[in-house]
TrEMBL record:
Gene3D superfamilies: 5'-nuclease (3.40.50.1010)
The protein's name: NYN domain-containing protein
InterPro entries hit by this protein: LabA, NYN
GO molecular function: RNA nuclease activity
Pfam family, one: NYN
Positions of the NYN domain: 7-165
C-alpha cells in the first residue's frame, strides 16, 4: 500500500492514539514511528494534535509535546477547557478535529498518501474528501481492544486499515511503571 516515492503526511490525533495504545498495553515510541514512515515514503509532514491544560503548573503531556516539537513533528495545540458536568465531575474538553481536517485538506494537493492515526468516525467525511482529491488514505487504530477503538464507517472508507497492534514491535515500547509511592510513617 506504500510506495517509496509517495509524498506522505501523518495526522496524529494524540488523545485517540494514546487511548488506543494504552488499551493494547504499550506506549508509542514517536522516534521509531517517524522513522518507520520515513522508510515507507517521502515524509512531507508529521502533525500531532493535542489540547493542553494551560492553567496547570505541570501538565504530564508537556514533556512529550516539547520532545515532539524538537524532533520534527508539527505540533498543533490549543488550550483545553475545564468544566463540571451535571454529576459534579470535573471534565476536560479539547477537541482537535477541525484543526486536523483543515491541515489535511490544505496539504492534500501536495500528497499521495495521508496516514490518519485515529479511530474517530467523525473523520469519515475527511477521508472521503481526500480520496476524491486523489490521495490514498491509511487509518491506524485498533479492532483488538474492547470495545474496538476504530469506528466501522471510518475503517470501511479508508483505502487501507493498519492495525495498531501489528505495529507494536516496530513503534512500541513497554509502558512505564508508575513511580513507587513513598510509604508514610505512622
Amino acid at each position: 500500500m506504500f510506495y517509496k516515492d509517495d509524498r506522505l503526511a501523518l495526522f496524529i490525533d494524540g488523545s485517540n492514539l494514546y487511548a488506543a495504545a494504552k488499551s493494547l498495553g504499550f506506549d508509542i515510541d514517536y522516534k521509531l514511528l517517524r522513522q518507520e514512515f520515513e522508510r515507507r515514503g517521502k515524509l512531507i509532514r508529521a502533525y500531532y494534535y493535542t489540547a493542553l491544560l494551560e492553567n496547570e503548573d505541570y501538565s504530564p503531556i508537556r514533556p512529550l509535546v516539547d520532545w515532539l516539537h524538537y524532533n520534527g513533528y508539527s505540533m498543533v495545540t490549543k488550550p483545553a477547557r475545564e468544566y463540571t458536568d451535571s454529576m459534579g465531575r470535573r471534565k476536560v474538553k479539547g477537541n482537535m478535529d477541525v484543526e486536523l481536517v483543515v491541515n489535511a485538506l490544505e496539504l492534500a494537493p501536495r500528497l499521495d498518501h495521508a496516514v490518519l492515526f485515529s479511530g474517530d468516525g467523525d473523520f469519515r467525511p475527511l477521508v472521503e474528501s481526500l480520496q476524491r482529491q486523489g490521495v490514498r488514505v491509511s487509518v491506524v487504530s485498533t479492532m483488538r481492544s474492547q470495545p474496538p477503538m476504530i469506528a466501522d464507517e471510518l475503517r470501511r472508507q479508508a483505502d487501507n486499515f493498519i492495525e495498531l497492534d501489528a505495529l507494536r514491535d516496530i513503534i512500541g515500547r513497554p509502558p512505564r511503571e508508575p513511580a513507587p509511592q513513598q510509604q508514610s510513617e505512622t
